[in-house]
Amino acid sequence: MTFKQSTHQRHKRSPLPLFTMSWFLALFWVSPLWAQQLPVVTDNGFIEAARTGNLDALKAAHAAGYSVDSLGRNGQSALHAAAEWGHLAAVQQLLDWGAKPDKRAKPDKRAKTRHTAMNYAVVYGHREIIRALLDAKADPNRAAPNYEVPIITAARLGHEKIVRLLLKAGGDVRETDSTGRTASEWAREMRHPKIFGLLKAAGG
To answer: I need a labelling partner for 203 at 20 to 30 A (CA). Which of 12, 51, 52, 97 fits?
Structure first.
């Protein structure tokens, strides 16, 4: 079955309201189309240094005694902040200090989720950070609170290179999210034919 055929058949079976709702969910459910927003509350110096990618400040704060995995006032660790904002050097430094790559953030008013650094990096397309996290033995199948594993997020948002990276790392194409969709179903829904083909070839 081709991508075009499967898309046509799916839409033929699905009523228009369901299709419209799927697009709404895809665009507004942890989507990078929303601009990244700085936390309302400024955090401690260690986490702010990670968020801005200031290595000198990060090292100074670490030397002053900040715990590498401590969560700040906004619910994130320094690793979460660096991964979300795309600061590879800060991520690598934190991992060298022993930061836990699979530690979850604590929900806050800005983002009522418990993401890992991997979840943040996938949402915003930070491929080299994902590679660094995988090298540090991060779990490629650790789900966000909506049961969306990284490969589903990458497929839904059209991050082809990240999908390829996660497949090589053991991303499970059979996993489903809270809507019951797999990564390949999201790729088809969002019209990402190359990603759809990759996932189907991998058994998705």
So the answer is: 12
Residue 32 φ/ψ, nearest 5 degrees: -70, -5
3-state secondary structure (DSSP) of residue 171: coil
Cα–Cα–Cα angle for 36, 174, 118, rounded to 5 degrees: 30
- Domains in the chain, CATH or no CATH each: 43-139 (1.25.40.20), 142-204 (1.25.40.20)
Name the pTM for this structure: 0.79
**How many Cβ atoms sit within 10 Å of the Cβ of residue 178?**
13
The token pair at 156 is 């839904």
Q: Model confidence over 147-201: pLDDT tens digits? A: 899 999 999 999 999 999 999 999 999 999 999 999 999 999 999 999 999 999 9
Reading the block at residue 7, the tokens are 């898309």
User: Please, which residues have CB within 8 angstroms of residue 101's CB and are 6 or more apart in sequence?
Assistant: 79, 95, 116, 117, 118, 133, 136, 137, 138
| Buried-exposed string 108-127: b where 16+ CB fall within 10 A, e elsewhere | beebebebbbbbbbbbebbb
Beta-carbon count within 10 A of 197 CB: 14
Sign of CA dihedral 58, 62, 67, 68: positive
